């Protein structure tokens, strides 16, 4: 990008909650003219703007507004996933998309480790029995002799691989390209070998981006290939899993359990059977959200905005055709 002296920046936020206005907005305002809008005002706000900070990562209409914005040059997503922004029109235009890769890696890896441990040690039952004041001794499982398949070879998947390896889990990765020896994920198998790889795993962890290739990757066939003692952990995107197939597999005892932080529909509807299944842990899309995460997101955007104004390469530029930041990219 060539240097520019100023920028008109639109910040898309929700009315309230986790995607309300970002903190430390003075840092953004010091670098340009800033407009704060919700979805209803986005199209009008973008008419003469050149930068969009998509702070509201749950927006389902932002891509349509981006397609119509003739002067828009760059969109930064306050999330690692960008599938909500990549409509056919956005993929085809010249707008640069960047994401917040790097902010969530370690927190999400810690969360996955906690979920794997919670299920292996049957902590949900312990808490339930404590609430019932029942003394019921059980035997738990050790992680040291277990295997994990981590789908997703980006920074989040790699951080997960390192955390699991540190407690003795033997890790295999699943990604776009096969690799014999990987420092974080052992060997990496291609995505089309999911069923084969899942058959050997005690823990199947999903941390892949949602793309045309990965949508619905865990379906009835993949679940049937898993061990009846295996468990599924999804911290990637809800669309990676065919949810009805998962419910059926859990009910039939085809797999032992699941820990789910993301869902096809969020919030998870109150009538979903997943809420009350004894072998399921449900959390509200919070695996990467630790104290200070919003400030880190703003700091990353401000750094990129400074780069944009100086005409320097942006960090975390997304390959719009595939929906991910290429390895080795800034």
Automatic annotation (TrEMBL):
Listed SUPFAM superfamilies: Formate/glycerate dehydrogenase catalytic domain-like, NAD(P)-binding Rossmann-fold domains
Signal peptide start-end: none
GO MF terms held by the record: NAD binding; oxidoreductase activity, acting on the CH-OH group of donors, NAD or NADP as acceptor
Domain D-isomer specific 2-hydroxyacid dehydrogenase catalytic: start-end pairs: 38-318
Domain (D-isomer specific 2-hydroxyacid dehydrogenase NAD-binding) ranges: 113-287
Keywords: NAD, Oxidoreductase
InterPro entries, sorted: D-isomer_2_OHA_DH_cat_dom (IPR006139), D-isomer_DH_CS (IPR029753), D-isomer_DH_NAD-bd (IPR006140), NAD(P)-bd_dom_sf (IPR036291)
Domain of life: Bacteria
Xref: Pfam families: 2-Hacid_dh, 2-Hacid_dh_C
Family note: Belongs to the D-isomer specific 2-hydroxyacid dehydrogenase family.
Name of the protein: Hydroxyacid dehydrogenase
């Amino acid at each position: 990008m060539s240097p520019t002296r100023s920028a008109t920046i639109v910040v898309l936020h929700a009315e309230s909650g986790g995607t309300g206005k970002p903190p430390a907005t003075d840092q953004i305002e010091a670098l340009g003219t800033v407009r704060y809008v919700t979805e209803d005002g986005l199209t009008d706000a973008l008419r003469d703007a050149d930068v969009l900070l998509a702070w509201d990562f749950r927006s389902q209409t932002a891509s349509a507004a981006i397609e119509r914005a003739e002067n828009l040059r760059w969109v930064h997503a306050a999330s690692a996933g960008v599938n909500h922004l990549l409509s056919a029109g956005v993929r085809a235009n010249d707008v640069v998309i960047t994401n917040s890769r790097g902010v969530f890696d370690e927190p999400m890896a810690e969360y996955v480790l906690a979920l794997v441990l919670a299920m292996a040690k049957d902590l949900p039952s312990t808490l339930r029995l404590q609430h019932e004041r029942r003394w019921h001794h059980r035997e738990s499982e050790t992680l040291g002799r277990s295997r994990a398949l981590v789908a997703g070879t980006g920074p989040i998947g790699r951080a997960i691989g390192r955390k699991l390896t540190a407690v003795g889990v033997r890790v295999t990765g699943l990604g776009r390209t096969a690799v014999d020896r990987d420092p974080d994920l052992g060997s990496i198998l291609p995505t089309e070998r999911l069923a084969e790889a899942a058959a050997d795993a005690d823990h199947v962890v999903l941390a892949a981006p949602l793309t045309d290739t990965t949508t619905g990757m865990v379906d009835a066939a993949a679940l049937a290939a898993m061990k009846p003692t295996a468990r599924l952990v999804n911290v990637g995107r809800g669309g990676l899993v065919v949810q009805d197939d998962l419910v059926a597999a859990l009910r039939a005892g085809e797999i032992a359990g699941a820990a789910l932080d993301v869902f096809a529909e969020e919030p998870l509807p109150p009538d979903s059977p997943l809420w009350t299944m004894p072998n399921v842990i449900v959390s509200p899309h919070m695996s990467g959200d630790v104290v200070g995460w919003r400030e880190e997101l703003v700091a990353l955007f401000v750094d990129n905005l400074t780069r944009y104004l100086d005409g320097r390469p942006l960090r975390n530029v997304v390959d719009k055709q595939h929906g991910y930041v290429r390895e080795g990219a800034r």
